[in-house]
Design a protein that fits this description.
Helix content of chain C: 25-40%
Strand content of chain B: under 5%
CATH architecture of chain B: Orthogonal Bundle
Radius of gyration of chain C: 21 Å
Number of strands of chain B: 0
Shape of chain B: flat
CATH class of the largest domain in chain C: Alpha Beta
Largest sheet of chain C: 8 strands, mixed
Oligomer: heterotrimer
Number of domains of chain C: 2
Low-confidence stretches of chain C: 1-6
Number of helices of chain C: 11
Number of helices of chain B: 12
Helix content of chain B: 55-70%
CATH class of chain B: Mainly Alpha
Structural class of chain C: alpha/beta
Mean pLDDT of chain C: 89
Chain lengths: 332, 308, 345
């Protein structure tokens, strides 16, 4: 059964013109997302994960930006669509949840109007139907007293509620793909737990595929099935979530996992000094010829600095862009 | 990895293919430094600055630019059209409009710069006081609200009515009308700066209040204040022309763009050039100052300037 | 509180601290209400100890830090540093004692004056407190500070905007160290940093504490970092401390339902880790109008009638914790918190 993936990104490059050089924010990223699958893209600030998500929805202003490559959604290349065709896809087949729920909601429209607007635009519902559906959506995302909340303005809601409204809006048109860009970063721990719980529930009931953009490895472990690790605009590692956390193959991923303290470390007694990744992320305004991580990698060799390593299978379904095998890395 | 079946969590060769660096999709940007780099990065500021320098040079060098005495009367040669002899023509008293416009630039520039300077200094002082002294703030800001409720040009006219017409009094009147705007701006900036963590850290490091004002608050108000000063400079030049035009400004004996236009007004329909040339110069000067201000705002601190 | 820490007098003692911010409104700008940001909390910190204040946004933890720094006057209570009350001290006496308590803030961008060079930023506290004998001594101290926070010495003449976030945070730490303090308040000092940089700063703070014997008041919402850094933890909710305990026993067996829920809510980087997750309902109530009785009763999974009426006091429980919860007055069989189970497993 050969089934084409829902989203197939090939050789995505998103570059920006800046006064002091071309910023290669995303430089040759390929990945795919199958229907119903949850794929996380992790990395630190400036690694290109958010630019990737904006590129998929073509929300990058051109100029100064430029997107190249192919973004195949259900076999159609989104980069070849007209603006009009793209608008029909945004918020309908593909929708997005942003980090800051306050700034991504319109402060002068009621919650119900904002959810209804998408429905009327994409599904041609009339005013009553749209409002009714909005109430249903609010109920779905667990907002108490939805009939009352639907008439309220964003500022009357708490941060967690607003994020629920954002999710309701994103899900209103039954999207096939949901892109969530740091959906819980601005929230408190207990509210984050509520939202993650909601996202897990909705995944089962709604069945949309999710691309989760985050820097929080804990969130990745809780929600994702497959993980892509990005560094300096490139994919450096990709694996199933269990494999990645159990045996990371790229020195960057290894460093990243070692740099986070584990909750409960005082109980298990494995209290070690946090591992540091020395140095800084390289500037993307100069072309990096070798491995992007070579300048910070503790095991970098002349080969790493000269030649960019290709992604290669280090284990079944586990690729990493490193010249050296695990054994060689351990020996070094 | 087989390519024919796709399952969850399984990678495909396509996802792995392009790890080698791809060619850039944008042409390289040459990072220009020095003079041309500056023009490239700040075109508005460069253009505004160049125009401004030209006008200043014109005002200073007026005696050497083929002008005659701008106040010399020649009744025999009144209202001549522009020609090789009289570039901008002559007015109803036979005075050379070209010479008058060039000398008139001096008045506009002096008034503009002086008002910008004095209202900034006074506004900064008042703004700092109300940003730091709570009880004074309530009183000062109510007075400023009162002053701001009167259109600034009317306030200046009223003040001029109380005094004798002179360049100094014009500067004073426009300055008083502009001070409330500056002090409000400075107060707002000071209040937001006081909330900055680096000010808290300075307090925790035992820095005294006067030192906090001098080292931490003042330098950070200068950027938005400079931007505001350019806009005040432009509006002061316009205000000076309006005052002179309605006869409440610079004494008629001194050639200023407002005076020239006022005198040309009677002949506007038959001899439009008398009004036209000073008006063009006024517009160009105000444009230059505003462009300079926009450029400064963008380059100094775009975030802060938007709040203005 | 462990016995060894009790033996010496504490470096800092905070006693029934309250800070209510007036809300102004209406035509005449009258006081229309109060934000009960901090509403009666007590704790102490020994020399060389790290106490963490944890809680979610709006619980008042940052206000506590600012009150200890005396960046504003407090509403009630006492703040005592080494036997001297600093909440009632005159401004001139205060300026001398400020040397002993310094602060590192969250945002590495707004915590450094953009119009001052690094050397002027670091020299300010040294000059204010008269720590340098002469200019040569000042230069020597500045160079030492740069070494201590692992920044190159020649970077001292640069402007803040020339540094990355992590480097700026190092400058912020160097400024705090310049005053040779006994206590540093870290107000979310690593929260805004990227993972790999965060590890660098956490390690630096731990090294400094070991080397200089500093006490830290570590204000954070990140429980994993807190567990890694701290000796004791105080958990805050809506302006109150609900639980205080030594690190290990807090993470092993929390004695307050809020702590328990907080620990269970943190996502951990272990896929498939089967944990008992307690998901709290609803949002944190407003500190303008806090709930009656126990402030947590509106969200507490174990709340019973008494919780709505009666405010629980912070009392010792069986395991050496201090907890403010009525459950501990019940017989052990009825108390879900008496089973010493960590929500982390």
């Amino acid at each position: 059964m050969a089934e084409a993936p829902l989203l197939d990104v090939r050789n995505l490059q998103t570059h920006f013109r800046t006064p002091d050089g071309v910023n290669r924010a995303v430089d040759g990223l390929s990945f795919h997302v199958n229907a119903g699958e949850t794929v996380a893209i992790v990395g630190e600030s400036g690694c290109g994960k958010s630019v990737t998500s904006m590129s998929i929805l073509r929300l990058i202003p051109e100029p100064p930006g430029k997107i190249a490559g192919e973004i195949l959604f259900q076999g159609k290349d989104l980069l070849k669509l007209s603006d009009r065709e793209m608008r029909a896809i945004r918020g309908n087949d593909v929708s997005m949840i942003f980090q800051e729920p306050m700034t991504s909601l319109n402060p002068v429209l009621t919650v119900g109007k904002q959810i209804g607007e998408t429905l009327r635009l994409h599904q041609g519902l009339n005013k009553q139907q749209a409002e009714q559906k909005a109430v249903e959506m609010l109920k779905l995302v667990g907002i108490p007293a939805p009939e009352r909340r639907v008439k309220e303005y964003p500022h009357q809601l708490s941060g967690g509620m607003r994020q629920r409204v954002m999710i309701a809006m994103a899900l209103a048109c039954n999207p096939k793909l949901l892109i969530a860009d740091e959906p819980t970063t601005a929230l408190d721990v207990t509210i984050q737990a509520q939202i993650l719980d909601l996202m897990r529930d909705l995944k089962n009931t709604v069945g949309a595929a999710i691309v989760l953009i985050t820097h929080d490895l804990g969130v990745v472990a809780e929600v994702a099935e497959r993980v892509i690790v990005m560094y300096a605009g490139r994919k450096v590692e990709e694996a199933k979530v269990g494999d990645l956390f159990a045996s990371p193959k790229h020195p960057y991923t290894q460093g990243l996992l070692g740099a986070v303290p584990k909750l409960g470390s005082s109980l298990t007694g494995d209290e070690t000094r946090l591992s540091e990744i020395p140095g800084l992320v390289p500037s993307l305004k100069t072309r990096i010829e070798g491995c992007v991580f070579a300048s910070r990698c503790p095991r970098a060799t002349d080969l790493c600095r000269a030649v960019a390593p290709a992604l290669e299978a280090k284990a079944p379904n586990h690729v990493a862009a490193c010249h050296y095998s695990e054994k060689e890395l351990l020996a070094a | 990895m087989s390519t024919s079946t796709i399952q969850r969590g399984i990678l495909r060769p396509e996802d792995v293919a392009a790890a080698a660096p791809l060619p850039d999709v944008l042409p390289p940007v040459k990072a220009r430094r020095g003079f041309f780099g500056f023009i490239r990065r700040h075109p508005t500021m460069a253009f505004g600055g160049a125009l401004m320098l030209l006008i200043i040079a014109m005002a200073i060098l007026a005696p050497f630019l083929g002008t005659v005495d701008p106040t010399a009367l020649a009744p025999a040669r009144r209202t001549r059209e522009p020609s090789a002899m009289y570039w901008f023509g002559t007015d109803m008293l036979g005075r050379d409009v070209y010479s008058r416009v060039l000398y008139g630039a001096r008045v506009s520039l002096i008034v503009g710069f002086a008002v910008a300077f004095f209202s900034s200094v006074i506004g900064l002082t008042i703004g700092l006081i109300s940003g730091f002294v709570r009880w004074a703030d309530a009183i000062i800001m109510r007075i400023m609200d009162g002053l701001m409720s009167i259109p600034s040009i009317l306030l200046a006219i009223a003040l001029m009515a109380l005094t004798r017409g002179s360049v100094g009094n014009v500067i004073l009147a426009i300055t008083i009308a502009e001070v409330p705007r500056v002090s409000r701006l400075v107060r707002g900036v000071v209040l937001s700066l006081r909330e900055q963590p680096y000010v808290d850290a300075a307090v925790a490091s035992g820095t005294s209040t006067p030192r906090i004002i001098i080292r931490h608050i003042l330098p950070n108000t200068l950027a938005p204040l400079t931007v505001q000063a350019t806009y005040i400079c432009a509006s002061a030049m316009i205000a000076e022309s309006i005052l002179s035009f309605i006869g409440a400004g610079t004494p008629p004996i001194i050639p200023s763009w407002g005076n020239i236009m006022a005198e040309g007004r009677a002949l506007w329909q038959v001899k439009p050039y008398i009004v036209f040339f000073p008006a063009i110069f006024l517009s160009l000067t105000v444009l230059a100052v505003n462009l300079l201000g926009d450029g400064l705002r963008d380059s100094l601190d775009p975030r802060m300037a938007k709040k203005v | 509180m462990s016995a060894t820490l009790q033996m010496n007098a504490p470096l800092l003692r905070v006693d029934d601290l309250k800070k209510h911010f007036p809300l102004r409104g209406g035509l005449l700008g009258g006081v229309t209400g109060h934000v009960y940001a901090v509403d009666g909390i007590s704790f102490d910190i020994a020399k060389g100890e790290t106490l963490s204040l944890v809680g979610e946004s709006g619980c008042g933890k940052s206000t506590v830090g600012k009150a200890v720094l005396r960046l504003f006057d407090i509403t009630a209570g006492q703040v005592v540093l080494d036997g001297q009350r600093i909440d009632t001290m005159s401004q001139s006496a205060l300026r001398k004692i400020r040397r002993r308590v310094q602060v590192v803030f969250q945002d590495p961008f707004s915590s450094l004056n953009p119009r001052m060079r690094v050397k002027d930023i670091l020299a300010e506290p040294i000059r204010n407190f008269g720590l340098a004998k002469d200019n040569a001594d000042l230069d020597r101290r500045l160079a030492e500070l740069m070494d201590t926070v692992r920044l190159p010495r020649d970077a001292i003449g640069r402007w803040p905007h020339e540094f990355s976030g992590g480097q700026r945070q190092r400058i912020g730490i160097a400024r705090a160290l310049a005053a040779e303090p006994d206590l540093i308040i870290c107000d979310e000092a690593v929260s805004a940093l990227d993972v790999s940089v965060k590890a660098q700063i956490v390690n630096l703070l731990q090294d400094l504490q070991a080397k200089l014997g500093l006490a830290l008041l570590f204000i954070s919402h990140d429980l994993a970092i807190v567990e890694h850094m701290t000796h004791r933890v105080a958990v805050m909710y809506l302006g109150k401390i609900v639980e205080v305990a030594p690190r290990r026993s807090l993470f092993a067996a929390p004695k307050h339902p809020y702590t328990e829920a907080l620990l269970s809510a943190v996502p951990v980087p272990q896929p498939g880790a089967a944990r008992k997750r307690i998901i709290l309902k609803g949002d944190v109530p407003s500190p303008i109008n806090p709930p009656s009785g126990c402030r947590f009763h509106t969200r507490c999974p174990y709340a019973f009638d008494r919780c709505k009426l009666d405010e629980p006091l912070l009392k010792p429980t069986s395991t050496g914790h201090l907890a403010a919860c009525h459950l501990h007055d019940l017989p052990a069989v009825q108390n879900p918190l008496s089973r010493d189970v960590s929500p982390l497993h």
